[in-house]
Design goal:
Strand content: 15-25%
Shape: globular
Helix content: 25-40%
Structural class: alpha+beta
Number of strands: 8
Strand order of the largest sheet: 2-4-3
Oligomer: single chain
Length: 138
């Protein structure tokens, strides 16, 4: 499938994490928790404040990577089951039945790519391994 069929769009100017993310990413533990009127409290930070990040409103999807920072296993990039990925991706959908069906179809198009789990504890190692994936493939 051509990558033009797998384009994602999103808000690239802000990262929003749940407060519990600080247990996985100690780097954000000192950031303020933002109360949200119509949602759960979040840790929010502008991507412009993070060095070495390039932002884009859209991106072609060549891989899907699930992050596992505290697996207890040695660091590695491993194939990830697509049925499990589909299950996780479908959990956050909302809207009418017709809207969800369109979203399910989009998820299935995304899952045409290789899906991985990145197990790591050291952030620098994880970034280097993802860069290698992008440059050389799995």
């Amino acid at each position: 499938m051509p990558t033009s069929k797998r384009i994602v769009t999103g808000g690239s100017h802000q990262i929003r994490l749940r407060p519990t993310a600080a247990t996985l990413f100690p780097e954000v533990s000192a950031l303020e928790i933002t109360p949200r009127a119509a949602g759960k409290p979040s840790i929010e930070m502008p991507t412009a404040s993070i060095p070495h990040i390039t932002c884009s409103q859209t991106a072609h999807v060549d891989f899907i990577v699930f992050l596992n920072r505290h697996s207890g296993a040695p660091p590695d990039l491993l194939p990830y089951r697509k049925d499990v990925a589909r299950y996780f991706m479908r959990q956050v959908l909302f809207g009418s039945a017709k809207s969800r069906e369109t979203q399910y179809e989009a998820i299935d198009r995304l899952l045409a790519v290789d899906v991985f789990e990145l197990r790591y504890t050291d952030l620098d190692w994880g970034v280097c391994r993802l860069q290698k994936l992008v440059r050389e493939g799995a």
